[in-house]
């Protein structure tokens, strides 16, 4: 136990020693009256900076970190992660970490951020191990089922027809389907209309947005390949050392192979295509895209802007002098309350594929998620139900009013009619006489 604690204390002292000189400089600045000297000058406002936005080294104020210092700090962090894993914390083993994981760990500014990232990697590792266990169980079940089928075949000498038995159909393997789909993309490179995905927004996204953009770019390629009439997709302005392209390379490891049908360019699209035929699709412009023109080359900005909502694509299109257009979403859709009008990259590709095939915006905009829009059929049914309810309520109110009017008329007629004969009435000549009233009662008592 003491052997493991000594490296842990050594690692903590080394990490704390990196920040000690900065604290000493700040303390000496305060003691020598640096704050009083700058009190008269205008204080610069502090801007909020997201620590996860850009990978910055731990010692940004000092000189540039050398490779030797970076390697030492990496070994210290490896020791920290190994000890935390041995203590049973939510940290994966060292053999799970890869180079891009350690690069991200080195860019984190604090220990709490590292703990959160370790927990995230631990969840991924646990899910991966669970999938491997399920895969092993499925393999055992498959072997047992195959053994039972072989035993049945040995016992039964009759011919069995069907799948995996005597059949007139040939089995099509997944590799055959992949080759066929890749051949369709190769044919699209020769004859299909072209479409561009602008991958130059890597510096405007944080790590999470870059990973989301890479996944959406992978889905763009996959869904375009599955379509019967795919586009000739071009990934332009690709920064191969950036976070987005590195994540995309992990999703598609063969993307840079010469035989793989995927166009990845480091050049800008203005250097590859005619500038007069380029149309930049941006939601910030005012002109709607009315019809699809197969001679035009449409450009979609590969950016996930969950935090940054600046019109970067509009500014770039104006700077390059390109035509701009936006999807007519407000004309064909009724957006729900509180729903954003942002679409993912794969949804944009699906919309453009259906628009190219059908030329109908109603069928093309079916790829917009239903949670963002109001269903017109359900809204019409709701309005019809409200109208029917209002009609029934009005009929009910008329009936009640009629009954109330009848009751009011009956009361009015009863109040002004002749009183019933059963009630005692005053008669003429029957004035009250006080003298005779008491005497009459005494006479009756005497007679009795």
Please render the helix and strand layout as text.
Elements: H1 2-31, H2 34-37, H3 67-86, H4 99-107, H5 111-155, H6 174-191, E1 194-198, H7 207-226, E2 232-236, H8 243-251, E3 263-264, H9 269-272, E4 278-281, E5 297-301, H10 312-320, E6 323-325, H11 329-332, H12 345-358, H13 361-364, H14 376-416, H15 434-447
Parallel strand pairs: 1-2, 1-5, 2-3, 4-5, 4-6
Detailed description of the structure:
The chain has 448 residues and is mainly alpha-helical. It has 15 helices and six strands. The chain has helices at residues 2-31, 34-37, 67-86, 99-107, 111-155, 174-191, 207-226, 243-251, 269-272, 312-320, 329-332, 345-358, 361-364, 376-416, 434-447; strands spanning 194-198, 232-236, 263-264, 278-281, 297-301, 323-325. It has a six-stranded parallel beta sheet, with helices on both faces. Strand 1 (194-198), helix 7 and strand 2 (232-236) form a beta-alpha-beta unit. The longest helix has 45 residues, at 111-155. It is extended and about 135 Å long. Residues 1-5 and 18-60 have low confidence and may be disordered.
């Amino acid at each position: 136990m003491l052997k493991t604690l000594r490296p842990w204390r050594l690692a903590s002292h080394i990490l704390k020693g990196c920040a000690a000189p900065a604290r000493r400089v700040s303390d000496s600045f305060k003691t020598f009256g640096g704050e009083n000297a700058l009190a008269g000058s205008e204080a610069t406002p502090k801007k909020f900076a997201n620590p996860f936005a850009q990978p910055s080294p731990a010692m940004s104020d000092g000189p540039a970190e050398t490779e030797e210092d970076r390697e030492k700090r990496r070994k210290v962090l490896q020791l920290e992660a190994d000890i935390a894993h041995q203590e049973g914390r939510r940290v994966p083993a060292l053999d799970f970490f890869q180079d891009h994981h350690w690069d991200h760990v080195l860019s984190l500014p604090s220990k709490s951020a590292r703990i959160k990232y370790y927990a995230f990697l631990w969840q991924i590792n646990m899910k991966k191990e669970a999938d491997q266990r399920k895969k092993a169980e499925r393999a055992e079940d498959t072997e047992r089922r195959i053994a039972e089928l072989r035993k049945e075949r040995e016992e039964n000498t009759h011919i069995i027809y069907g799948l995996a038995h005597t059949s007139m159909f040939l089995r099509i393997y997944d590799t055959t389907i992949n080759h066929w789909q890749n051949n369709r993309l190769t044919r699209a490179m020769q004859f299909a209309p072209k479409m561009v995905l602008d991958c130059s927004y890597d510096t405007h996204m944080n790590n999470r947005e870059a990973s989301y953009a890479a996944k959406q770019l992978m889905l763009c390629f996959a869904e375009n390949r599955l379509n019967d009439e795919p586009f000739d997709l071009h990934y332009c302005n690709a920064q191969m050392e950036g976070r987005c392209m590195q994540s995309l390379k992990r999703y598609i490891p063969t993307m840079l192979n010469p035989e793989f049908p995927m166009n990845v360019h480091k050049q800008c699209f203005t250097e590859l295509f005619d500038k007069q035929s380029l149309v930049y699709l941006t939601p910030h412009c005012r002109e709607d895209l009315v019809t699809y023109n197969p001679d035009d080359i449409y450009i979609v900005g590969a950016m996930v802007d969950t935090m940054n909502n600046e019109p970067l694509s509009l500014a770039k299109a104006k700077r390059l002098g390109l035509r701009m257009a936006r999807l007519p979403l407000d004309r064909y859709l009724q957006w729900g309350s509180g729903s954003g009008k942002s679409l993912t990259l794969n949804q944009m590709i699906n919309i453009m594929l259906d628009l190219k095939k059908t030329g109908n915006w109603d069928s093309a905009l079916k790829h917009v998620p239903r949670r963002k829009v109001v269903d017109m059929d359900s809204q019409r049914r709701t309005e019809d139900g409200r109208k029917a309810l209002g009609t029934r309520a009005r009929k009910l109110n008329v009936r009640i009013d009629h009954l109330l009017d009848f009751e009011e008329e009956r009361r009015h007629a009863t109040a002004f009619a002749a009183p019933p004969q059963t009630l005692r009435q005053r008669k003429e000549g029957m004035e009250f006489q006080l003298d005779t009233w008491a005497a009459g009662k005494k006479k009756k008592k005497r007679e009795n």
